[in-house]
């Protein structure tokens, strides 16, 4: 049920297209407060979306349109995200200059850093402020997204009758969501680990800036596929077992499954561990003070406790609603799914 707020409130709709589900959130900003009007998770048939890119536009559009109608979302302007792996993000330095001069020279400067064909990319940039090493320079984040991916994604939303007026990048949205919700961590070295359906992303951030990101090709979908193969069951059965619905399976099956799950967890955690070690080895042996876990697959078994004990860094589940006012009954389990969507909606509510 959509809650309506009075005149003066600004609405923003964020839509995150995931490989296993779409997340929709509508926020209202009133004064300095953000309210959640609408929250929905739309499960998708397998293969409809792959790696955040829509493959089956017709069925995905009908699911999305039904959800928006059901929740009374009438705002057509929406904020969407492009998967980070189709985007090059770099922080460069340029001498301080007027915005108009920067506008005309950034393209030529950016060419030196972008490995894609410049005719095939859309370029955007954000002036971050003084360069830490040379105060007469500005640090500038350049963001180059592949045009075909951006067009594919925005065509999909136009087909749904929506106007994707802001196109963000999912990893940037996730970090913005974190900075908004955990301002007390601003000065600390923090790792956000998102374990989704298609992959795992390890971010290391400090002072609102990304210092490092690595994508690990392990996600919930391939974990379910491995379980299905190992126990000779179909994908849906394997998904049920993985998410804790054992049905009337025998004790022998359960213990064999738990051993197998431990093996999977060990592999995921050792990849995350290696990534953090790699960052530390290249950054004066600095380790993150804390790991924040998000993404649906971060609900797998006892992954949080295992990360804490094996990597030896305090870990907790990230709450993307921490500084939002929640009008709905909510269970902690949905926290894991909304990190990117909240970041997108916040962009539109700024
Ligand atoms: N209780 C649970 N235990 C383990 N895994 C779970 C649980 N609930 C959901 N998952 C897994 O979480 C994954 C979905 O997570 P999430 O919604 O973050 O991914 P997505 O946004 O759809 O995909 P993408 O990786 O493209 O962002 C699925 O693979 C699902 O199997
Ligand atoms: Mg996702």
UniProtKB/TrEMBL annotation:
Transmembrane segments: none
InterPro entries: ATPase_NBD, FtsA/MreB, PilM, SHS2_FtsA
Residue ranges occupied by any SHS2 domain in the UniProt entry: 12-178
Source taxon at top rank: Bacteria
Gene Ontology terms describing biological process: cell division
The protein, known as: Type IV pilus assembly protein PilM
